[in-house]
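U., I forgot to send this yesterday:
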Amino acid sequence: METRTVKLIDQLRKVVATAQVADEGAYYGGTIDLRETPPSLRALFEEFEEIVNGQMFAFLDDIQERIGTLSLKAVFDTGQEVYVKDLQVFPSTGDVSFRLPEAPASAGSWSDSAPEG
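Result:
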């Protein structure tokens, strides 16, 4: 299975993480490097991981919505940029997964509307 390098960028086009992912069919999955991740974003990912690992599913919708409102984009090694959906980051293990919207945004374009949560 081919892995690809993906940089996650915020709306200011600042790289917040770099990942090595493979296309798993319905989603991309792999490992993530959080060294460039701002502390507030890393804390959000840590909170997500705590909720999932603690099986506190009553809080899961809220944390996923908070992550979704960040409107992060994946910049693939081909130059293609797309908003990520259902981003899941587990800082303690370095695991990451996300889905792409049905119609990818064109490379370099922020004019496309952000996907729904």
